[in-house]
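Throughout our pipeline, every protein is held as a single compact record rather than as scattered files. Such a record has a labelled line for the sequence and another for the backbone structure tokens. This encoding replaces a full spatial description with a residue-level series of whole-number codes. For reference, a complete record is included directly beneath this paragraph.
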Amino acid sequence: MMIPRSASLVLAGVGLLLANIASAQPKRPDGRRELPQVKVADAPTTTVEMADDPFALDTVGMSIRLPVGARAETTSFGGQTSVQVIPPDSTWLIRIQTPRVPNKTMSALEVATEAMNQLLASVSVEDQKGGVLGTFGQVLKEPHEVNLSQKAARFYVWLPNSAKSSAVVRGYTVFKTGPDQFCAFDLTTAEPEFGRVQGIYEATIATATFTDSIELSESRGKLVKAGLGLFKGLSDKEYRELIGDGAERWERLYRPSKTGAVNDDEEIAYRRIRAWVGKRGDLDPERTKGTGTAADKRVGYLVQMDARGVDGRTVIDSRAVYFMSPDRSEEAWVVRNALKEPKGEPLVSSEIGGRTGESVSVTTSTSATPSQTIRPLIQGQGYISGFESVMLPRLLTRAATPGEYGFYAYQSKAGMIRLRRDVVEQPADRPGVWKITSKLGEDQKPQVAYYTAEGKLIRTELPDGSVWEPIELDRLVQIWRNKGLPTD
């Protein structure tokens, strides 16, 4: 089946296939053509033990069970979410991607065919002038439809590797989950492993289920509408009440010990948080000292977080400052991080962002790489600023209304605007305490926080078992110094 060139360009643009395909499959230097030593089984009988808890990819409303012991690592950039599923023995890799395409008429079979053509082209045979004569790759099974929880398309190809490495087999299964949305499962494994891995791959994908795209959109809409209700009509007076007297607070991040003794806890980080009414120039007072522009003199709300983390002998220092205008139409932020090893110069990174209306611009750079600028897209209503994201727990407890809320917010780690979900409730066994369960991104595991009736943090439990708790500065310094950790 031929795919229009325009479709090929669209798919390449949204990253359906990772850019490193070609570099991972170099052309054989001797020009020798190998033949595959494997075949695709029509119905593999491999027995696969699946984990009890499913993995959810909420961006496409997908739930899937992974093989026991396999881990899923999620990354997002430029509006794309990618998940890598890796087993304990690292003999295979499944990449899960969620591309969108402008052409709403494209089918899963067409997408699979285009993906196969790109893979075969990555190991092309060229003449002396660079013309393409063919491919070193072999099609093990052409793109075809498969009936799973819903119709999908699948193919397998064999690709040569360097003379010192085994050839690889790539499997590809793609679902159409919405008018312009797809979910693809891209398998990579060495040729000698494929006979065993094919069954694992197909059994895993057979557990995938998808929420109807219309139902998913309606569900998100209800959450965002509830979230918008919290901000509707908030006055300058109420924002100032959220900020309070500007006093700083300290919090400690640690992994609790089995003994319950502080000395046995594993220290991870600490941070200082303070909010105040000030000027935009407060984002970077050294830069604007005495020379501030009219924009720097604009009055607004600010919140600042200073943190230090430790990872072995590595120290990570960070500062994040967020500004928002009283009418919520403008915001700006500056985030700086410094990673310090025992030897060598620190690796410094920065993120400078701003928004006017619905136009967002974010520039990132490090001491080792040039700067890059992205312009994340705000889709519809429900967006909250960086300032409001940090202050959100106080707003939720202030509203004193149990329920589920949704907000769109820029996530620095993901490099994109994502939907966060917050469930607010009052546990029956803890009178006067608010419990907020938050998913900072749709594909993130939830964290659970407890607050007093006045909105003061009691404890935040993170998915990895670590805990944030408020602490007095003197006590924090004493704990870190007793453990020989840097506090200067």
